[in-house]
C-alpha cells in the first residue's frame, strides 16, 4: 500500500514538473521571428523612456528604463496596432512600480500570451487609461510604410529637440540652385502635421500669416506633403474653394497643378515620422514666395494635430499645440539654406515635442441648463472636451464650449454672433463642418444651409423646439469648420437634470468651514475644480502668447 502511494505521488510530481509553465529566468525557446528585435519606445508621459530587446519567445528586456514612478497602476499592455492602443490588454502579469533611473529589467509574458498576439507594446496607466509610451514591433513583419531609400541629406538643423529639418540643394552653388530636397522628421503620434516655409522676402521676422509652407504628415497609414499658403489662422474651408485659412495651394487655385511640392518618401517607424519632398526654389504661382538661399531668412515652422476627419488627400490642420504647448518658430528664428551645416543628433530618442507638459485630455466641461436663450460667440478653447482642439471654439452665454441641457416641448432661441466665418447649426456629428466634408451618415436638425452666421451688431436668430423625435444627444457645431462646438443633452419634461444632480452631489455634505456659496436657482453650471482653473489660466497665457 505504501509503495503504491509513493508511486502515485511520484507520477503526480512528474506531471506537475512537466506541465508547469516556464518560471522566470528558465530557458525559453527562440523560435519567433521577433527574437533579437531591438527598438526604442516612443515616450509620452511621466518621463518614461527606454529601449526594448526581445530575448526569446517568453521574455523581453528594457534597458535605459526611465520613469518618474508617479502614475498609479502601470502595466505592460499589448495592442494589435497603434490606432487600437486604447483596446489593448495586459501581456505581463506583474505591475510595474517605483521610479526607474536608467534601470535594466526583464519581463516575462503572461501564460498563454505570444508575440503573435500584438504588434505594439504599451506602457499603460490603468487608472487613467493613459498611454505613457509605446513601441511598434516591426521585426519579422513588413512595415506599413515605405522606409527611406534615398541618399541621406547632408544638411540638418533641430527646430526643437525632437523636430528636425534636413535638406540639400540641387547645386552646391546657391546662386545656381533651382530645387531643394527636404525631409521633416519628428517624434510624433500618427495624425499630426509638420510645416516649414517662408514669408515675404522683405520681412525681417517670422510671420505665420502670408507664409508659403510645405505641410507634411501621416494619417491612416499614408504620408502626405502639400504646398500651402497661410492666408489666415482659420481652418481651411475646402467646400468654398479654400480661399481663406490654412489651405493647400491646389484647393485655393482649384487646380492640382498649383501644388509645387512632390513627395519622395515617407516612413513612420517606432514613433518617428519622416517625410521627404522636393520643391522649386522659385515661386511657381501666385500662392508661392521665392525660397531665397544664400542669406539668412526668417523661417515659418510649426507642428500640431490633424482633425480626426483628415485623410492624406484632405488633411485638416488644427492649431500648433501638442499636449497643451505651442510648437512653432520664435519670432527671431532665421536660417540660410545655402549654408552647409549639420547640428542634428544622430537619432531622435526621447519624447516628442511638448510631451513634458500635461497631456491634452478632455478639459473641464461646464453644463448650461435652465435658460431658453443662448448667445453664441467665439473664444479660446483651452478646455475643449473633444481634443485635439483648433484653438478657437463657440462660447455660449460666455462659457467655453459648454454642454447644453434642453427640455422637449420648450422653445429655445440661439442668437448667433460668432462672425460671418462661423455659421451655426445643430447636427448628429460630433465634429461638424458639414459644408466642407460630405458625411452621408450626418443628420442636420437646424441651420443646415450654412447661412446661420451673424455678428454682435447683427445677430442671426434661430428658433428651435425639441420634440419627441429629437434624439437624446446631438451637437451644436460650425457648418464651415470642424470642432467649434459640443454636445446638447435633450431631456423629457419633468426629467431630473443630471447637471443639477451633479451640483447637489458636489455640494453635500459640505465641509463645516466651507465658505463657498451654494449655487443659485435658474441657470446652472458644473464648475471646474481649483487645479483645473489653475491649469486653464496657465493654458490661457500660453495660447495668448502663441497668438501674439
Description:
- This protein is mainly β and 548 residues long.
- Helices cover 9% and strands 32% of the residues.
- A six-stranded mixed sheet has the order 24-28-34-33-30-31, with no helix packed on it. Strands 2-9-8-5-6 form a five-stranded antiparallel sheet, with no helix packed on it.
- The model is unreliable at 1-21, 140-149, 350-361 and 510-548 (pLDDT under 50).
Count of separate DSSP helical elements: 4
Total beta-strand segments: 34
CA-based gyration radius: 28 Å
Quote the distance from N terminus to C terminus. 92 Å
Profile the largest sheet. 6 strands, mixed
**Oligomer designation:** single chain
The neighbouring-strand order within the major sheet is 24-28-34-33-30-31
Shape: flat
**Mean of residue pLDDT values:** 79
Brief digest:
With 548 residues, this protein is mostly beta strands. It has helices at residues 2-19, 249-253, 498-507, 530-547; strands spanning 38-40, 42-43, 49-54, 59-67, 74-79, 89-90, 100-108, 120-125, 130-136, 155-160, 163-169, 179-187, 192-198, 212-219, 222-230, 246-248, 262-269, 272-280, 297-298, 300-305, 321-322, 325-326, 334-335, 367-368, 373-379, 393-396, 399-400, 403-407, 412-416, 424-427, 444-446, 460-464, 473-478, 487-491. Helices cover 9% and strands 32% of the residues.
Amino acid at each position: 500500500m505504501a509503495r503504491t502511494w509513493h508511486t502515485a505521488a511520484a507520477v503526480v510530481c512528474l506531471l506537475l514538473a512537466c506541465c508547469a509553465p516556464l518560471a522566470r529566468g528558465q530557458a525559453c525557446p527562440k523560435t519567433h521571428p521577433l527574437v533579437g528585435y531591438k527598438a526604442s519606445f516612443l515616450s509620452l508621459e511621466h518621463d518614461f523612456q527606454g529601449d526594448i530587446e526581445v530575448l526569446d519567445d517568453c521574455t523581453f528586456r528594457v534597458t535605459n528604463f526611465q520613469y518618474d514612478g508617479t502614475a498609479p497602476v502601470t502595466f505592460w499592455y499589448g495592442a494589435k496596432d497603434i490606432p487600437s492602443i486604447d483596446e489593448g490588454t495586459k501581456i505581463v502579469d506583474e505591475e510595474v512600480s517605483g521610479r526607474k533611473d536608467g534601470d535594466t529589467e526583464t519581463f516575462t509574458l503572461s501564460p498563454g500570451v505570444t508575440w503573435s498576439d500584438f504588434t505594439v507594446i504599451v506602457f499603460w496607466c490603468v487608472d487613467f487609461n493613459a498611454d505613457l509610451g509605446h513601441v511598434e514591433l516591426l521585426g519579422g513583419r513588413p512595415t506599413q510604410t515605405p522606409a527611406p531609400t534615398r541618399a541621406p541629406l547632408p544638411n540638418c538643423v533641430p527646430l526643437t529637440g525632437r523636430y528636425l529639418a534636413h535638406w540639400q540643394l540641387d547645386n552646391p552653388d546657391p546662386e545656381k540652385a533651382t530645387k531643394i530636397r527636404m525631409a521633416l522628421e519628428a517624434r510624433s503620434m500618427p495624425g499630426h502635421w509638420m510645416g516649414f516655409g517662408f514669408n515675404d522676402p522683405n520681412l525681417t521676422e517670422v510671420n505665420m500669416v502670408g507664409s508659403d509652407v510645405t505641410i507634411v504628415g501621416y494619417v491612416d497609414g499614408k504620408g502626405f506633403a502639400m504646398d500651402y499658403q497661410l492666408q489666415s489662422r482659420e481652418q481651411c474651408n475646402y467646400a468654398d474653394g479654400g480661399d481663406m485659412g490654412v489651405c493647400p495651394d491646389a484647393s485655393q487655385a482649384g487646380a492640382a497643378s498649383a501644388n509645387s511640392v512632390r513627395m519622395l518618401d515617407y516612413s513612420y517607424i517606432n514613433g518617428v515620422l519622416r517625410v521627404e519632398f522636393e520643391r522649386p526654389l522659385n515661386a511657381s504661382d501666385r500662392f508661392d514666395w521665392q525660397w531665397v538661399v544664400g542669406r539668412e531668412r526668417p523661417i515659418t515652422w510649426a507642428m500640431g494635430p490633424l482633425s480626426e476627419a483628415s485623410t492624406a488627400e484632405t488633411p485638416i490642420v488644427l492649431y500648433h499645440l501638442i499636449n497643451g504647448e505651442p510648437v512653432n518658430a520664435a519670432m527671431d528664428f532665421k536660417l540660410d539654406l545655402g549654408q552647409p551645416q549639420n547640428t542634428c543628433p544622430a537619432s531622435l530618442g526621447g519624447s516628442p515635442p511638448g510631451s513634458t507638459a500635461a497631456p491634452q485630455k478632455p478639459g473641464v466641461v461646464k453644463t448650461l441648463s435652465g435658460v431658453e436663450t443662448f448667445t453664441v460667440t467665439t473664444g479660446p478653447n483651452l478646455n475643449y472636451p473633444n481634443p485635439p482642439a483648433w484653438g478657437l471654439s463657440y462660447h455660449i452665454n460666455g462659457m467655453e464650449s459648454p454642454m447644453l441641457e434642453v427640455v422637449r416641448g420648450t422653445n429655445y432661441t440661439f442668437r448667433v454672433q460668432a462672425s460671418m466665418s462661423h455659421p451655426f447649426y445643430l447636427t448628429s456629428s460630433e465634429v461638424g463642418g458639414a459644408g466642407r466634408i460630405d458625411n452621408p451618415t450626418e443628420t442636420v436638425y437646424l441651420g443646415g444651409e450654412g447661412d446661420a452666421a451673424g455678428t454682435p451688431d447683427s445677430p442671426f436668430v434661430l428658433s428651435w423646439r425639441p420634440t419627441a423625435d429629437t434624439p437624446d444627444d446631438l451637437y451644436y457645431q460650425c457648418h464651415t469648420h470642424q470642432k467649434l462646438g459640443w454636445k446638447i443633452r435633450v431631456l423629457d419634461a419633468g426629467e431630473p437634470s443630471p447637471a443639477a444632480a451633479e451640483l447637489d452631489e458636489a455640494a453635500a455634505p459640505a465641509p463645516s468651514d466651507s465658505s463657498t456659496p451654494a449655487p443659485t436657482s435658474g441657470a446652472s453650471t458644473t464648475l471646474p475644480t481649483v487645479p483645473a482653473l489653475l491649469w486653464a489660466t496657465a493654458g490661457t497665457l500660453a495660447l495668448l502668447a502663441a497668438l501674439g
